[in-house]
Fold each of these.
Amino acid sequence: MEGNMTKLMARLMWPSMIAAVTVASPAFAQAADEGFVDADEQQLAEEPAAPAAITVIGSRRKDRSITDTAVAIDVIQPEAISTTGYSDLNDALRTLVPAFNVKRLQGNDGSSFVRPVTLRGSPPDHVLLLLNGKRRHRAAIVQIGTGHATTSGSQGQDFNVIPPIAFERLEVLRDGASAQYGSDAIAGVVNVVLKDDTSGGAAMAQAGKYYDVGGETYDLQGHLAFGLGDVGYLNVSGQYTYQEKTWLGGKNVGAEALREMGVEDVPRYTAGNGEPFYEAIKTVYNAGIELGGGVELYSFGNYLKSDSSVTFFYRQSEAAGGLPAHATYADSAFDNTAAYPGTFDLRSIFPGGFTPEFEGKTEDFSVLFGIRDDEGAFNWDISGRLGNNRVDYTIYNTINPSLGADSPTSFDPGGLTQREIQLDGELSYLIANDFFASDILIFGGMSYRKETYKIRAGEPASYEVGPLRDLPVGSNGFQGFSPEIAGSFDSESYAIFAETDFDVVDSWNVALAGRYEDYDQFGSNFSYKLASRFEFSDLLAVRGSVSTGFRAPAAGQLFGTSQTSQINAQNEFILDAVLIPGSPAAQIFGSEPLVPETSFNMSAGLVLTADSGFTTTLDFYQIDVDDRLLLTPPIDTTAAQRTELDAIGFANGSSVQQVRFFQNRLDTRVRGFDVISTYGFDWGATSRTSFSLAVNYNEQKLRTDPTQFFGAGTVIEFEEGLPRWRGNLTVNNEIGDFELMARANYYGSWKRRNGNDFLQRDPAVLFDLELTYSGIDAVDLSVGARNLFNKFPPDRGEALKAVGLIYDNHSVFGVSGGFYYLNARFSF
């Protein structure tokens, strides 16, 4: 099937490129899609002959417009985001940019709260998020339970923290940019540009739900802009989101059997691999004051407070329905001392078993102050930022088995914090000359960054060893952080960087960047980038780049650790520990200290722009990463190894049945291409139709043989665990006061690990539809559907159906089916 689809896409792609050469009717000259365009396709609707002079990421020049960048950049307007029906930037980008992907992970510990993204098949910590061109801090959560080798173990940034109503635009750089923006930009950069208006405002309200699985969702957003006299601006935006869980109808056969037996207090819900509960308040501000002489004092920042919860697997209290009781609990003997006589039966606390509920309360804030001069040939910018992301965990409806009948049923297992401080200074100068076709940009700067990663210890009952020493220790489902694990860990880095950009002749642009970085724990590195664009004519241009990158392990990867309850291939609950790499405990299993990742990135593309407004861009890329940092698959422990863990004082050493840890053991390669085509035409006095086709092909390979930690299963998961083909076709029809948007989203085939086997997942096509009425002054009313025909992912197989998991909870397009919504937008 995949081979036939490859041939089909190729047959569709080349005629569209040829059509760009042949279509030349000047009557239709206008931007094809005002919501989403490649940077080389952006035009001003009011003045088609004049390109939009907006500086974007990928170039340090103020006079570099989005129509002549040397690398692939997508510019996404707020209108395009609103038509996705999402208030989460993760999902909006997944819908609009096929090279960008994200999953909804339910019941996967912290990964349920900060979703791992990929760009061009690269993990979250290879994608850099900027706010107004400045780096944002990482999230505190390290991705442990992602279920996929590509994203597992990464510590990236949280993309869902800024209200979409605050966006002036989004910029997505699909190219390696570590030499320009620093570590984490191996695959690309996403830049959120905030509004900087001096008056006006907007409001938005949306309500919706999934077709037949619940998930009622309400979203309110507001934006206000103020002038600060005649010399400044202040923009403030806010968002409130409330989303109920979705329940997919799965039933645990054991729980159902207990109900039939008349057992009381069996939990109502025993499987919940749908959307999590989520409630959040998000705010952001953007301000600036002119001090005179081109100097501006500026500041922006955000604050988020959210509460989210997910449901873990049901724990059965006694044998029924062909499933055993949770043998580690029922009828287990106490340590028979005078202090603890008798026996413990789980039914004394949870007669009908229990389903742990895992909650994460997140607080995220950032503030940046700077002063800059951006007028004239000589410019400078000095700024400092503070960013903090904190998550505090709570787990309900569970026990610490080793405490027996004295166990609480809710626990504070602790929390995580990521804090960053950065100071940055930049200078740029345009050198006038008679030799080249443009002034020569000379840009340089220095940066200092300090990261602090904190692990807060939980309450004693969440981790302590009780009298039942033969039973698992700690709050079941997610064990608390003990004082031995808790602590504060710092890392520091310095960077010196420079860049030059100039036009050799009017049709040929060249840019060169270099960055020297020094990390206190990993030494120094030099990264470079060379990019160029040559325009043969108004119709055809070619572009390409070569770059290197460097990424030092994040503090959370160096010092993070956890212990959780997992379910194995036999549907048994076991204790899984993530070990600190290179620690005495990890060395028992062959772990070595971590080293930085290095990368080599190549891209080459072409841009076709016809007079008719038909445009096509085609960009090929290859990303090689050496010493790729991955979290190992679970390693089963032996009795001898558990004895060693006990001997060195490792918490629950005798109970740990699986371990994992971070390692640099593989070299990887990502190779693929992006195609974006747009076209639009007017018909009648008030009607217009526009088309946008975006396609990504992405192939991942291991360049080294798997080691003792990464076997054949990891190879399949890494190379085939994500769709190679992704694409969407969007059609917008404007007829008077009405606009109808229709979108088809394509996901290629992929494979899903299922115990020791893999399940083949067939390609899928989902459809979105939105109708908007704008006949009321300053008001837009919309009704829409995501996944219009309510398509669900394939099931997980009979074994997991028995415990209530119906659909694949790692599906690339979600598990809850169609979502239908009403939306009202007002501007003034």
Amino acid sequence: MAGRPRFLCGVVEGFYGRPWSMEQRKLLFQWLKRRGLNCYMYAPKDELKHRLLWREPYTEHEAVCMWSLIEAARKQGVEFVFAISAGQDMVFSSAGDRLLLQQKLRQVAAMGCCSFALLFDDIDPCMCQADREVFPSLAQAHASVANEVYQELGQPPVFLFCPTEYCSSLCSPSPSQSCYLQTIGQELLPGISVIWTGPKVVSQELSAALLEEVEGVLRRRPVIWDNLYANDYDCRRVFLGPYMGRAPGLMPRLQGLLLNPNCELQANFIPIHTLGTWFQSELGSCANPDRAGMEMVAALGDSRGPREGSYSPQEALELALRDWVAEINQQALEPGWTPGHPSVGLKGRSRLQSGTAGGQEVVPDPKQHDSVPSGVDQHGPEPCGVAPGEGCRKVTSEPEKGSGSRTPNGSQQSPTGDGDQLATGSRECCEPSASLPSVAESAQSAGIPMATKTLLSPGHTMSSSNEANTSQNLLLPTSDARTGSGSPAQSLSSTQPEAIRADMPQTPPGTGAGASPGPPALLTDEITASSGPLAPVTPEEVTSSPTAAVTPETGSGPMVPLTPKEARTSPTSQMTSEEARTSPMALVTPEEAGSIPTALTIPEESGSNPAALLTPEEAGSSPTAPLTLEEVRMLVELFYLPYHHGALAQELLEHFRWLRANSLSVGVPATAPDACGGARWRGRAQSFQLLCAETCRLHSRFASAASRALLYDLHPYLWDIRNMLLAASAFVLWLDGHLLCDPGPKGTWGNCFGWCQSITAPILLGRDAEPWACRGGLFGELQALLPVGNSCDLFYHPPPLFPSSQTYLLRPLLPLDKGELYRMCRESLDCDPKVAEILMAHPDLLGDRLLGPFLSLSPEYTFVLEDEGGLCGYAAGALHAEGFLQQQDSSWLPAIRHKYPPDLGTGGPALGQDALEEAVLFFHAEPRAVPLPVLRRFPSLVQLGTAPRVLDVGASRSLALCLLSALRANGSRGVFCQVRDADGQQLSFYSKLGFVALPVAWGSSPGTQLLGRLL
């Protein structure tokens, strides 16, 4: 060997799932060069000929692709390391298998590759009978194969070996006492470097002291395979925070450090940018710096990062944010991208199925599964610590330290061509990986929009593309990489050898599309929403004054929601997002709490000139303007690191936890005259509403202004968070004045959460817990705080094929909503002119049929969905269905029969006539008795509906989630609904919410099914 190789620092593409394309890798090489990084390892687990079919040589076409990749790395000064994973089914004692392995590596060497890696991670630690007869231990078998290959290749200067025990947590009982590692250290030739991930698969921190033990047992300095950003173990998490948790002065203890980043290429800008900054700092602080590396650093200029030996994660993040904003907006201006309408080709195994009311959704491949190590509780995610050093937002919790990881599956993929791909496997899991686009020029030269933000009501500014966004105008064709990438029924987790991959709850396939000719499309499968505030509504207010405003008493009344028009002119809508963030605990006087409505507000959009500082007016007039620095910072803070939340995510969690814990102060009946407590709760709720609105607005801005590549990679994660915050925001509004404080055994908030916590409360895991024990990250923690958080099937559904930037408002019912809800019911019916004439004469007929009993007898359990065109959906319920139905039959129906004559529905066959006849029959027929066993097991009644223009499944499910959470919070353990057999859309939607047909005889209502689900 000519001498010790230089310190390797770069990325490794080693995750389970769809590999990156050749073009993406070439783009990655440019990024590595610009950030002063020098190494890339090719190790995609689901590239068939890397792992599953490792014995097969590359075809001529594949060899040309590989050669071009090696050559592209060489031109950028990046060390290309070709890795192969042969341990899954290799017979180590077989001369044939050894020969095939050597021939495969010699073929790659002939393409110009000079560096190699042999990976024996995530394999069965038991040897076959033939190997047991030859080798006394697995370690000796591995060392024998590695030494022979190393020598056959001429002892290349870079030859890496990944052991089966690649982290401290996999060693028994410890690294220094592991027989496997001791044998590897003794038997492996000194020129072979050993890969190590740290104390855990996803190591929270690395320090020189922690590496001393490893260096001693391996008899050489390790090469770190850093899984800090690996995300293929959880399909709901992506990590955008700065590189941190790695103590200064690590380089003397290492031979290299390779970062395994997110599966999504575009998500890795900040990870790679900050890794480069860390590497520059380490080079500067070493006693004997790598001169080759220092030359690369000098070429970058002094403005690219902190000075030598002074790495600060927060400073590195600020530099990376500015460069990322410039890169994002540069990509958005590239030819072929249309603002608000980027198009992304559909890939691989995603299937398009028709949803309801003209919507469409991605149905995941049935083989796809999410990976979870066996024995890990999936219900309650452990709360993450707030990111240390966050200077941009004020937070209260103590910081924790950074982390790193090798991981299991469930990731999204970037839109890439298939023509340049090598053979790709069908499994999807997680292990080491890496990638990233090319760095944009610095903010000083490119110009970054810095929007001065004013919070406005949702709907104040809408994308121009949204104004025409109806059921016929679908936006952004993009496939769901998480659910549509097509992974197999079982995949090994790179995080643990032979880890069992648990099935992720998936949305059942949809049924027919298109608007139903019946009454309003009762909850369609697709929507996009935004939350809003609410006031309690009494039956008298709804029936007697549909348009009367609610005026709560000063100091004690619940939060009053504003209509979109009112919110736009409300003084409270001018509160800035920074004010909401920096003063979340500011107390509100009783007078203020009673007189100031908690209006849902949204930050104005950034301006259209990426090189100019934008005024609020300019930003509001251009919804497709480039993303601003503050918006990108919000995105990073929502998806930070595996062991840390960003400031925005931490504040959302702190507010929601506090509001839930203190919700009895605004319950009914009031337990004590605690005006100050109620005022403080409402002030905190208002801050929470502002943050939720800001985040929902970010989703809309992101869908309008992001480039198609970035949108493809990150939209599913942001879409999940938006849907969760829509539900959480509306639920918090509902709590004020609707939560029952009865101390009895049923219907109490405390009992509800006592029951929920027995299943979903976060388990206080020790420091040795891996991050996949906290399923879902921010999404999972918010889910656990909802009363129905244990019902995982309510929360897992694929994102839409066509992301929409349309803004919605989700809130409880207001008295003035009745007229508009009735109009929505009437306009949703596609009918013959003769039927239309009848409806004009009786405009409330369909509304009375669908919503009349709920608005009159149970308005407190009604939520509405609103877009720029007005109300477009509802979710209505009755907590005690038995009493509700009795009251409906005894008082409401007799009164309504005088309003509509029984012969109103008679007539010849006509479009819409069946809906008319069904409504009149409902009013005048003998009341339908629901079987008593149903009422005992499913005590609550629900009804859901949306207008045909609602396309995004996320908001419609959030609407249902609000209603079910409200019912569960007041003690309900089950709900049921009544659906006609002919209404296939409704049957499909309810089935996707977990409702099942109840096997009970209901002879008094032919043609109607009872569906139920437990809460």
Amino acid sequence: MKNLLTLLLAFASMFQFTLAQAIKVQGTVQDSQGKGIPNVTITINGQRGGTTSDKDGNFTLNVNSLQSKLLFSSIGYNNEEVALDGKSTIAVTMTNSESNLGEVVVVGYGTQRKRDLTGSISNVSANQIKNLSLTSPEQALQGRVAGVNVTSSSGTPGGSVNINVRGIGTISGNAQPLYVLDGIPIATGSFSQLGVGNQVLNSLADVNPNDIESIDILKDASATAIYGSRGANGVVLITTKRGKNQKTRVNYSGYTGNQTAWKKIEPLSGRDFQDVLQESLFNRYGSLYGNQEPSFYLGPDVHDNSYVNTNWQNEIFTTAPINSHDISAQGGNDKTKFYAGGNYFDQQGTIVGSRFQRYNFRLNLDNTVSEKFKISSGISISNSIQNRIQNDNNIYGVLSTAVLLASDIPVYNPDGTYGKDPTSSTENPLLAAKENFNKVFNGRALANISGDYQFSKALSLKVNMGADYVSLNESRFYPSISNAGAGVRGQATEAYNKSMNLINENILSFRKDFGKHGINAVGVASYQTQNFESIYALAENFPGNSIRRLSAGSVKKDATTSGSSFGIIGYVGRFNYSYDGKYLLSVSLRRDGSSNLGSTTKWGTFPAVSAGWRISDEKFMSNVKFINNLKLRGSRGNSGSNSGGLFASLPLISPGANYLTSAGLAPSQLGNPNLGWETSIQTDLALELGLFNRINIIAEVYQRKTNDLLTSRQLVGNSGFLSVNDNIGAITNKGLELGLEGTVVNYKKFNWNTNFTLTFQKNNVDTIYGGNPFGSGFMSWVQQGYPLSSFRGYRMQGIFQAQTDIVAGRDGSAARPGDIKWKDVNSDGVINSADQEILGTALPTYFGSFTNTFTLGNFELTAFLQFVGGNKIVNYNRAFAEGMNSVFGQFATVLDRWTATKPSTTMPRAVWGDPANNRRASDRWVEDGSFTRLKNLLVGYNFNQSALKKMKISSLKLFLQAQNLFTWTKYQGFDPEVSTFTLTNTAQGTDFLTFPQPRIITFGINAGF
């Protein structure tokens, strides 16, 4: 009894001690815009208990000591640890996290709280991309945003990236979105004049990804209509980093690593190639040498090198370094804030001879002149050098020749000269990579300045002016030892291209709350011009290969100059209304005039309306605690495009129609004064759901119909022109977008965040001129009722195994056992073009991503998985390297070809010249283009600040990052992600020896001072 009494007294004393030590702490939690954040979880480091903030961000809790540390966590924000340091009242600001749920997002001509959005806008933050090996900012969007399909048109360093927001809505116009950098629409596309196959220069590679604070993608019409004539294909808003009211902080980030080819395709050995060559000749002519002398094919110097077995892919693919170094400073006071950053980026290609280097500097300034007037400015200067090689849809390209040059040709001859096959025009790939000179020198300056005057708390005026200057110099030289330069004793080409883009925007904004009523109105007047100039010249007959300038060539020709310009004027109005934060309405109207369109149709009007209902804020939802957000929103609106080309509506004349020694001009384009806008009408419906303050789900359906497509209409009769620009046809895109993100585990030092996106889409060509289908490329086909970039061809029905299987008159007189049996679709007894069918489309029917980030103490692991499916690829590489009809090199897969002693049901016989059309456009070359790729894997370690104080370092992170680490696909080519004709809307999905993307392994460091 005595012991029990003693124990009870002890517990009572401890309880009283605890009560005596409890200290009340109160405070507020807000976002970067000063808005209170509800439902923030607040815990005490090393102590039980905690609380959550109320709807206005206020909280109260008890602590044992005013020296305690509080931990603040909420879905959509970075965790914050705050030391009380003797204070009982605190204010905490939480910053947006990688979860893509930032409270404030950038919209056209302003910002808006995400809870108030009625349009479809997705966001990618700097935290999501800061450690990635990126050449340009649009690569950061790949797989991360529902409804946005991003593909690399080529793996060449500095190569272009293709982005389609909610499908392709044009046949011949530009299907890329509008890019707006710090409020200024910037010039995109390639200004290059010197072609290197289908490679396209990436104009956005001039923008340093490390300077980016966030990227917002406007997808539906209510969000894009405010950009009117340029918003039909979506809008990408890029916001760069700016200064803060803080002590100057310096940050270094950099990485170094290597790149390798993640896949090679096994070629035939030299000996096996000779066997196939002789077999093809025998099957055609009944002779090992056909109608040529044996020495032509099998002489002492040609295809008789049984000791030679060159794997040309091993010769051109190399381990290539990649390096990036970025240093920035950020700081300021209540008057002036600044951000300054410099970057050096160097990526050598995994194919010999290719390289991209960039030097970049940015300075952003914000100055508060007075309480009512602020000035903001920014300037970015970049200089890049790109070493280009011939490739991508180019039979003389480096990868092309590495596949098509026979493996029994030596790399070098005994005398040290490059090996060559005199029976073929295929060039030695090492000669093409090392001896041909092809460089691009690109300088770019982006500048903007704005003044913001606050008439009152509700009314403000912002005047924004920007300039985008591009200077592109191209230099190319083919030496006399190359195929292109041999007949003319060397050939040099120089091209100079200049572009100046100027814009002025005047933005009047009104924002005010009247009790439960909230109004946000914007009026804009915008004016933009763009001017182009170019010079081109060619020279031949050089005294040697060391002097590459035009002046050294004795024969000058093809010197040309050109210039063009266009302008756009726009007037915009937008009105947003909210009642009690629950009922949301947005109405906008833009009217644009474009110099590209006809005299009677220059102006277009683009209205949009959207509405939202925050169901979770209704009283009847107050007891449903596990739902923290439930919103229904919808929109409908118009946006447009005038991308039919410069002066597309005007009758044009061009020089070059010379007669004898007199210069002449000739009509080159028939005018169309009625040429008007492509107009997209888009409807969108979405449901947003937040659960347990941990999980966010969004489901969104859309339909986008584009009418009056800008394209060329074929003419008949005696007009003197073959076609005229006109508004013809319609395309519909439909889709379903799903997104899920949340915190799976948040326990002590372990955190697991996940993000999943999935998009289903369908494209359909509704109408084309006269209903007449047409071809576009090797197998690409445009036909009503089918998607753009469909493939059309014959279907295989096996291989003829005996002469008795061949039907006279149907299968052709040249068909023999071992040739392909084709499907007679219309059963008319003849195999002809009427038997061709649609064999699939290059456009994926679904795509998405799955990202998981794990943190345990100071360690971090992020895995980003990307997947694409439902699309087909025409593997045009195989039409050459499995053709078995010429002296082209062959893949080892032809070892499974049909022979009399080893019949095959899938691979035909080898036969010179292909008399039975085994290589014709057919499903033989159409493959499943679906793939799943471990796009990024990152392992990082963040050092404790206590360990860094002595070194005067505020933060330090080391990381190891892998890109394109693993790829799972049935596609037999080098890379399922690239496409030779990516920027041709009607001919996507054809792969003809396109530069594949590399596997990249880098080690990096982020350090703050």
